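Each record in this resource describes a single protein on a pair of labelled lines. An example record follows, reproduced without changes.
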Amino acid sequence: MNATAQIAQSPVSVSIGALIERCRSEIATHADRLNGLDCAIGDGDHGTNMLRGFDALLAERELLNALPIDETLVEAGRILVMTIGGASGPLYGTLLIELGRALGSGVVNNEFSSAFQQAVDAVAKRGKSKGGDKTLLDVLYPVADLLDEQHDIEGLPGMAFAFAESTVPLQAMRGRASFLGERSIGHMDPGAASCALLIAAVCRALNEGCRA
């Protein structure tokens, strides 16, 4: 089954609570690595901040699980904005909030890819950045393209990690890392890394049809 069709079925095949637990577990497992990536070109706390946000989502999983999918995404986005902090909170929050708003009351096959593209564009606008600036957009934009192409969901995790890896030779053009200029070259962007981890966690959960 292709990714957009499987994501469209997620409200009935996979619980939101289970997705939150998977994502939180992935961030917790890699929090130290994310902090390490951020130490090289940022404040060194990206993993800690992301874990705080997903701990907050986990604490509200029963509420989020009871809402319609669009409302769940909007509320989850607001929680991340308030709890992650820094630049990542507003960016991840915007992604979920705008995805929820774009989906409205339902998801049908190719509607998800269009909604995801709108949400990614909103993240770019919020961060005043674009693909190639060494941000999480270097993962989000190519993933959006794959969803639009009806790409098979099983291959998305590996491709998301490859997209994060592609930020290593880039010079950061936005955020604290941009102050380093050419010294930011040679390091993976921590936001791209966490984005790939989360995309992989969601895809694997959908593929397995996990339930809370």
In short: The chain is about 70% helix and 0% strand.
